[in-house]
Design a protein that fits this description.
The chain has 310 residues and is an all-alpha fold. It is built from 13 helices and two strands. The protein is 74% helix and 1% strand.
Length: 310
């Protein structure tokens, strides 16, 4: 296990290097500059700004500086917001995005597993058809469309929730549901398929022969094995609730990190783009590592040796 984790950490460092390199050159290939929209700037002031932020240095010097700053987690000052560092922007706004993401994950996993298990228990019956239709609907409807519909009907028409903002738990319900709905449907489909496969196994037939109830069999036997595909999906799920919340945060006017990330791309704010990209990459890469470790803990038959599973 330790050798596997060390090898994966090495792969994570390599992946971060590739991400930083690709992000750097993509920013440099894009036309314009961070100060191109400031039409009132005289050329002398723009030259001073370029010099202050090192944009007048050769590309290899800038690349080296980005690597060093990323390695030390010092992402520098924002080029568009005066006297604001990228680190401060991340520390202020990421807790909001994290809270929203965790809430969306709990909703997606909890209700997705419950709907999938319920569907499998009543296979080819009306509850199964109803649950399957709900799952397909969740997979099919994009989160930003669902966010707009919820905002209009549940917040504007029925006045059940606030339309936008971030002033308490009630403000997080609609955006969390909008993010979780798609993942909830996918998890429900995974759980249903996996449980149907487990229901035909010998140990489940033996449990039925002993007279155990259907829900007892689910919680004692089939659910644990059926959760393996769901655990595998936790990595992409983490990516979905973090990166997929950008547009939902914008729709609900939530002051999360997604807002700064989108604005930094629009403003070509190099330091914020690089800082948020590296920060998100670290979170997602470690999320995948944790999922792989959890996979082996849920199913003791899986042993991690180096980079292989046996």
């Amino acid at each position: 296990m330790i050798n596997y984790i060390l090898k994966r950490l090495l792969y994570i460092l390599l992946a971060l290097f590739v991400i930083i390199t690709i992000t750097f050159f993509l920013m440099r290939l894009a036309p314009g500059s961070p100060f191109a929209s400031e039409r009132n700037f005289p050329p002398q002031i723009e030259e001073n700004l370029n010099k202050t932020y090192g944009l007048d240095n050769p590309w290899y010097i800038q690349y080296k500086d980005y690597l060093v700053d990323s390695a030390t987690f010092n992402f520098g000052e924002s080029m568009k917001y005066k006297a604001r560092s990228t680190n401060d922007m991340i520390s202020e706004s990421f807790p909001v995005s994290l809270t929203l993401g965790i809430e969306a994950m709990l909703l997606a996993v909890g209700f997705g597993v419950l709907i999938g298990a319920f569907s499998a228990l009543y296979h080819n019956k009306f509850p199964d058809y109803l649950a399957t239709s709900f799952a397909v609907l969740g997979i099919s409807v994009p989160s930003f469309i669902l966010a707009g519909l919820m905002q209009y009907f549940l917040a504007y028409e029925l006045k059940l929730f606030p339309i936008s903002g971030w002033k308490g738990f009630i403000y997080s319900v609609l955006p969390a549901l909008a993010i979780a709905f798609t993942h909830m449907g996918f998890i429900a489909k995974l759980t249903r398929s996996s449980m149907l496969e487990q229901n035909n196994s010998d140990y489940v037939k033996m449990a039925r022969a002993k007279g155990l109830g259907k829900w007892t069999i689910v919680f004692r036997h089939t659910l644990r094995n059926a959760l393996l595909p769901v655990v595998t999906y936790l990595g992409p799920l983490t990516a979905g609730v973090v990166t997929g919340s950008f547009i939902v945060e914008h729709i609900f006017a939530i002051p999360g990190l997604g807002k700064h990330f989108v604005q930094s791309i629009t403003n070509r704010d190099y330091t914020v783009i690089m800082g948020t990209t590296v920060f998100y990459s670290i979170i997602l890469l470690f999320a995948v590592l944790i999922v792989d470790i959890l996979y082996s803990l849920i199913d003791p038959r899986i042993k991690l040796k180096g980079a292989k599973k046996s």
